[in-house]
């Protein structure tokens, strides 16, 4: 299967999965305040993102590079981010790096998003295989990127018929990229979540932000299982279908690495989920699969979906009794339900 065909299939299957997403934040309850002393319509959602001020603590998660359909999706997402004052990541630029084809990720995405923050994207494993990391400049320049996202997807690769299985040397490559990169480098998963030790190792080599991208939303094990031609790979996809950590679990675990800038994505479906993620320590929240349907439709559909999420976030703040979303904190959590948490304590983190 070609890389372009695979990317198109990801869009199709991820959108189909949306019908079955049950948010991993369901188990978490926020405190209710019966005397908010807050004007709901005046709740301030503004948030900082790499020296920019966003109108809300939201970014559009990296999804598509690639083919014609993808460039239409990116156009709608980027225009919506510009209209609402939000940030956005593009999908993997591997194809653009390995060929002369910019694969839909030309300067047009930068034109569509205006001055809002835009993030380039490359697999950490792809980056580790480059003969000369300076060629990454070729994917930063057309976007005039504000940051480079390296995505970590070892299980997704391992569950693909011909995915990359050898992850030796990836940390060293990340260190070299962080040292070289003219812009901040962000690490994210793709829906299996980030563990404490990997996050710590990456922060130590210069990664500035971790987007946990946990389980609970788009499930790549299931998607790769559907796409696998070999029956052995299909069975593995089934066996490992619930592998990984949920987004709330990751936030609880990684927050102990303080100081850390944490972004939350993976299964965020509503403004209430955003409020819970912020209370668990995230500073920004990313939406992926939730925006695919609207992005296939139009810019207006993406704007409407995001405005709804922003209103739900305002209502959550009002319900908790805070006038600003960046005032949400752990004390506003009433219960984390049955979440298995706090496996590590700060004192037991291995060096
Ligand atoms: C169709 C699709 C394509 C994706 N492609 C990429 C990618 O190229 N690079 C990346 O870092 N993440 C990619 N992701 C992962 C998302 O950025 C996000 O981390 C993940 O989907 C979890 O968020 P969600 O549950 O809101 O979808 C993709 C997700 C989808 C749905």
Structure description:
There is one protein chain. Helices cover about 40% and strands about 15% of the residues. With about 350 residues, the protein is α/β, with parallel strands linked by helices. It has one domain: Aldolase class I (TIM Barrel). Strands 4-5-6-7-8-9-10-11 form an 8-stranded parallel β-barrel, surrounded by 6 helices. It has a two-stranded antiparallel sheet with strand order 1-12. The chain has a two-stranded antiparallel ribbon with strand order 2-3. Helix 13 links the parallel strand 10 and strand 11 (about 285). Helix 2 (about 70-85) packs parallel to helix 4 (about 105-115) and helix 2 (about 70-85) packs across helix 15. The longest helix is centred in the last third of the chain and has 22 residues, at about 300-320. It is globular. Mean pLDDT is about 90; it is low at about 345-350. The structure holds flavin mononucleotide. Flavin mononucleotide (FMN) binds near residues 14, 61, 191 and 217.
């Amino acid at each position: 299967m070609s890389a372009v065909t695979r990317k198109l299939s990801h869009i199709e299957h991820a959108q189909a999965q949306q019908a079955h997403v049950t948010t991993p934040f369901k188990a978490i309850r926020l405190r209710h305040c019966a005397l908010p002393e807050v004007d709901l319509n005046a709740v301030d959602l503004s948030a900082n993102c790499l020296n920019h001020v966003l109108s809300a603590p939201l970014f559009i998660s990296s999804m598509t590079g690639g083919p014609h359909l993808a460039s239409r999706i990116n156009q709608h997402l980027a225009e919506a981010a510009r209209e609402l004052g939000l940030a956005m990541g593009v999908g993997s630029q591997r194809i653009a790096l390995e060929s002369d084809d910019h694969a839909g990720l030309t300067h047009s995405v930068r034109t569509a998003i205006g001055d809002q923050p835009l993030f380039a994207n490359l697999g950490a494993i792809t980056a580790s295989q480059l003969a000369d990391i300076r060629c990454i400049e070729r994917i930063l320049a057309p976007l005039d990127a504000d940051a480079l996202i390296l995505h970590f997807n070892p299980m997704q690769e391992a569950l693909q018929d011909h995915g990359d299985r050898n992850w030796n040397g990836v940390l060293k490559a990340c260190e070299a990229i962080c040292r070289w990169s003219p812009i901040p480098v962000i690490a994210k998963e793709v829906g299996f979540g980030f563990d404490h030790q990997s996050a710590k190792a990456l922060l130590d080599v210069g990664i500035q932000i971790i987007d946990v991208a946990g389980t609970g939303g788009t499930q790549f094990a299931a998607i790769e299982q559907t796409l696998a031609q070999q029956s052995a790979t299909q069975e593995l996809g089934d066996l490992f279908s619930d592998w990984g950590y949920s987004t709330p679990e990751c936030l609880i675990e990684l927050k102990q690495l303080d100081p850390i800038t944490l972004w939350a994505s993976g299964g965020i479906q509503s403004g209430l989920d955003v409020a819970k993620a912020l209370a668990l320590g995230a500073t920004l929240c990313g939406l992926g699969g939730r925006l695919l349907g609207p992005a296939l439709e139009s810019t207006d559909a993406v704007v409407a979906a995001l405005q709804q999420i922003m209103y739900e976030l305002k209502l959550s703040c009002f319900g908790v009794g805070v006038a600003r979303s960046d005032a949400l904190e752990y004390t506003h959590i009433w219960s984390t339900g049955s979440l298995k948490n706090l496996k590590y304590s700060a004192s037991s983190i291995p060096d």
